[in-house]
Specification:
This protein is mainly alpha-helical. The chain contains ten helices and two strands; from the N terminus they run ααααααααββαα. It has a two-stranded antiparallel ribbon with strand order 1-2. The chain is globular and about 55 Å long.
Length: 224
Amino acid sequence: MRKGLKTINKYFSIFSKGVIKENPVFFTLLGMCPTLALTSSAENSVGLGIATMFVLTCSNIVISLLKNLIPSQVRLPCYIVIISGFVTFVGLMLKAFLPDLYDQLGIFLSLIAVNCVILSRAEVFASKNGVLASAFDGLGMGLGFTLALFIMGTIREILGTGTWFNIALPELSEPMTIFIYPAGGFFTLGFVIAAVNKFMKRRPHNISCDNCPHKGMCRRGEEE
């Protein structure tokens, strides 16, 4: 019983860290290109997030299964081939069943194949852990990425167009169209990251020489 609870806690910890503690957008700042480019509406944000979560989870599982068969010298090309296969599958499914969303996502759907979030989890986690742990890692990181895009898309769409999922909302004020442009994306991202860090009570990392493990190897460290 105790062993079972320990296992459950282990996998829950792996899953939850991607959603909260190590959210790929808010804390590690990965996947900034789609985060800023496609979050002008909540619908696009959720669509891209779910597609990325599917690719991330499936690629993590396959890479974990094949980790002992992939030569270390060609691991990154192999990861990209695996990820690209799932991206192609997602693209075909969206084109067949959700053509409007497929057209809105455009080239960014194909760019999931080189998304830093997916490649980093393949290299850092899936290639070093078991299949089940890799699956939970993919689900957690994917959900965290989707949640971040959803928050960004919701704020930008409501403030920029006065709609939410293309549904008109009561006009509390005049829509500020700047929020659907790149400048609004950068402003929203900065504000949300600041709010999340404040809520999580995170402080900036101390990057002085006192905490540097290589302090004695550089002249600056010797001077201080």
